[in-house]
């Protein structure tokens, strides 16, 4: 009998909750039984942005968001499992919504909103959450968390693969051809976050669908080159980001004197898309140069401006996770379903070669329903 786990992911794009119901077998096969997407209500998304921009808000406001997000997670989970007639769901893996992630602070600090108790009580299911803290407590970055799942789901080829997730932040997992070599993973730079914020400011829409707006203009090469001078790109892995780094303030500071912010909005959007692609390729070339194939997942896998640029500059085969039986939109949520499985079964799930932790540890805290 299949053992089922649910996974919930609400990423740095702040668009909503991806939910999957999945099973995993010893042959490294992932079977997605159902998937759902629950958009954030506009008013809630605005509150989330307020908290991210002002993480020192009063405790009542923080608690309000924590519970409201727990309720949204529960709504997504109940919709996901409403018509399921098979074996029971063993647990929900819930990453939470990252408000702050500062692994290099003293002491290190990470904060994901979304009350697991609310989620457990409303669904009647066990919840596994807070996946980053244990790794950080042992000297790791606590991120990225998906590479262990990428290794499970995608390391079937006899060639070096880069699994690139383009969410709000872009990250890469290096799966070496020789499976005795360590897996490497790190955040490469912005994914969709700058693109989303810019199109929201300029056009009042939540994102640049399929990269259509970015594709309608020619990028500014000198501006792109200046973006790529940021010090983050020269820092070696392990390294990770949150959206407080590559944000609109960063963009405004880095627009050069030849760019008319008000007249060249679409040129800036095109340049941002190229910046995402080029920074991904820069990270791959610099730190994992023997990659022979790129497998894309995350919402950015649908952005034709980013994907087209990647194909143009890399000369490698660029495909998506769909070739492995998992939709690009489901990979991250699947990762948290798998991480919940690892925690419930008592298996460590961090990769010290990715995060920099001193050793492998169990990831996640378990919350049972009352």
Outline the secondary-structure elements.
Blueprint: E1 4-9, E2 16-24, E3 30-39, H1 42-53, H2 59-81, E4 89-94, E5 97-102, E6 109-113, H3 116-123, E7 127-129, H4 133-136, H5 147-154, E8 161-166, E9 169-175, E10 184-190, H6 193-203, H7 221-227, H8 248-254, H9 265-287, E11 293-297, H10 304-314, E12 317-320, H11 331-344, H12 352-355, E13 365-367
Parallel strand pairs: 1-4, 4-7, 8-11, 11-12
Antiparallel strand pairs: 1-2, 2-3, 5-6, 7-13, 8-9, 9-10
Helix pairs in contact: 1-2, 2-3, 6-9, 7-9, 9-10
Structural class: alpha/beta
- Tell me the β content: 15-25%
Between the first and last Cα atoms, what is the distance in angstroms? 27 Å
- Provide mean pLDDT, rounded: 93
Instruction: Work out the radius of gyration.
Output: 20 Å
Query: Secondary-structure element order, as H and E?
Result: EEEHHEEEHEHHEEEHHHHEHEHHE
């Amino acid at each position: 009998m299949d053992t089922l786990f649910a996974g919930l992911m609400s990423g740095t794009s702040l668009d909503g909750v991806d939910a999957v119901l999945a099973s995993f077998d010893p042959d490294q096969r992932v079977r997605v039984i159902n998937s759902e997407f629950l958009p954030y209500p506009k008013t809630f998304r605005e509150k989330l942005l307020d908290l991210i921009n002002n993480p020192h808000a009063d405790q009542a406001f923080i608690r309000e968001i924590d519970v409201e997000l727990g309720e949204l997670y529960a709504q997504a989970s109940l919709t996901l499992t409403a018509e399921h007639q098979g074996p029971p769901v063993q647990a929900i893996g819930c990453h939470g919504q990252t408000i702050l992630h500062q692994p290099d602070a003293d002491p290190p600090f990470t904060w994901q909103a979304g009350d697991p108790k609310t989620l457990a009580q409303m669904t009647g299911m066990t919840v596994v959450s807070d996946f980053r803290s244990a790794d950080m407590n042992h000297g790791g970055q606590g991120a990225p968390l998906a590479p262990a799942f990428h290794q499970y789901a995608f390391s079937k080829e006899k060639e070096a693969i880069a699994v690139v997730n383009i969410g709000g932040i872009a990250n890469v997992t290096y799966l070496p051809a020789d499976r005795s070599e360590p897996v490497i993973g790190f955040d490469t730079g912005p994914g969709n976050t700058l693109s989303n914020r810019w199109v929201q400011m300029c056009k009042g829409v939540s994102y640049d669908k399929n990269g259509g707006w970015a594709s309608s203009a020619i990028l500014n090469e000198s501006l792109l080159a200046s973006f790529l001078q940021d010090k983050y790109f020269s820092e070696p892995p392990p390294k990770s980001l949150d959206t407080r780094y590559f944000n609109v303030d960063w963009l405004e500071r880095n627009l050069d004197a030849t760019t008319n912010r008000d007249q060249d909005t679409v040129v800036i959007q095109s340049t941002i898309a190229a910046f995402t692609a080029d920074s991904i390729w820069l990270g791959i070339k610099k730190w994992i140069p023997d990659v022979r194939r790129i497998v894309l997942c995350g919402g950015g896998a649908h952005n034709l401006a980013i994907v087209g640029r990647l194909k143009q500059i890399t000369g490698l085969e660029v495909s998506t996770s769909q070739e492995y039986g998992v939709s690009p939109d489901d990979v991250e949520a699947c990762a948290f379903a798998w991480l919940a499985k690892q925690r419930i079964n008592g298996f460590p799930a961090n990769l010290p070669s990715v995060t920099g932790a001193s050793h492998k540890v169990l990831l996640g805290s378990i919350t049972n329903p009352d």
